[in-house]
Specification:
The chain is mainly alpha-helical and 434 residues long. The protein has a single domain, classed as Amino acid/polyamine transporter I (Up-down Bundle), CATH 1.20.1740. It contains 21 helices and no strands. It starts with 10 loop residues before the first helix and ends with a helix.
Length: 434
Amino acid sequence: MNEHTDGAEPKFLQILGDGKSGWRRRAWVLWALLGPGVLASLANNDAGGVISYAVTGAQYGIGLFVPLVICLAPLSFTIQELSIRLGAVAQEGLARIALRRYGRFSAYSLVSILAFGNLLTLISEFIGMTAGLVLLGLSLPLASTACLVLVTAFVLLTGYWVKERVALSMGVLNSVFLVVAAMTQPRPVELGRAFAAWHAPSGGQGAFLWYVIATVGNAVAPWMIFFQGSGTIDKGVTSRELRFSRIDAALGCVLQVAIAAGVIVSGAALFGRVGDMSRAGPADLLQSLGRLTGRWPAVLFGIGLFDAGFLASITVALSSSWSIAELFGWSKSLDDKISDAPRFYGIYIGTMAVAAAAVLIPGLPLNFMAIVTQVISGTLMAPLLIFMILLASDSRLMGKHRSSFSALMWQWTMAAMLTALSGTVVGAILLGIR
């Protein structure tokens, strides 16, 4: 039974309505506010994203990319705010809105693209998780099985609130990348120069553009939109609580770019000191980091890589489950038990199993796959952002919560920049620029 439909007030609203005061009260309210926004942002620093960020640092150093990820925070917040507002006001996820407004073909196409992209992303999560466990001594098949058991055990927890709190607690471990970045002892002068000069490397512009769009794909991904909207609804957020969800999203964006910058700085410790890392495996990345910076930075990076994959696996698989179940009208709440929503949880477990099996295929270019997955995500974001802008500006759907003129100008600016960047990368690929 869904606690939001049986008359019970959602847990976070109970906490917000508590009349107590003082710093403990404020801390408790902040903890209650955290949810889909922070989870979506931290999960964007997924295992594939972490590998991509680290490889980017190893290939190009700090240079352009640390300032770039920080500048992506406004784009990420714009997309999350749109998704939050659509979910809270319409009380429907994007898949259901597309079905109702544009028909079956559009909705099925949208969800099919999402499901395919999510499967690629899940494979990259298992690549990262298994690499962390292999570093600790497990064989690849055993590591993959252990990861599958852990991420599927998540659905056995009771209720949305408990599942959300467990996922948030796992997200705290993302901070380990900041520790690793400090342990690599980056030079403050180099960080300052990166922000002052915004230096792009000369030569190899085709490959460089791939890394740029992959960096964008790390910060904003299609699954994030669907997870954010459906998670907002499942948490019990309505249009009355929009201001709280915006705080949640803003905090998540700040944490995401700070941690992403830390990963790039960690990878930059390998810049100019190892060969081409783009086609090496994550284990090679960890071993190189261990040789150059010591065992503990590599171990901590491996732990962070596992945690990143674990958190992202849950959120990415949930975005598929929510969207497909919503499209077909199936039960889809995290407050439901497995017996109450077997198809919803079946999609979650099934996609996890496919991803766990895929990483056992010999000869996969694992690091390269992680980067390609992020490139696909970044490229798909432009049309999805345009779709959301059109919906959020529709007064029939959004009423008084439709986008204002100034908000629309900002949103269309973000969409134009993302479209231009995606078009540049696609053009470079088609023209064979290297």
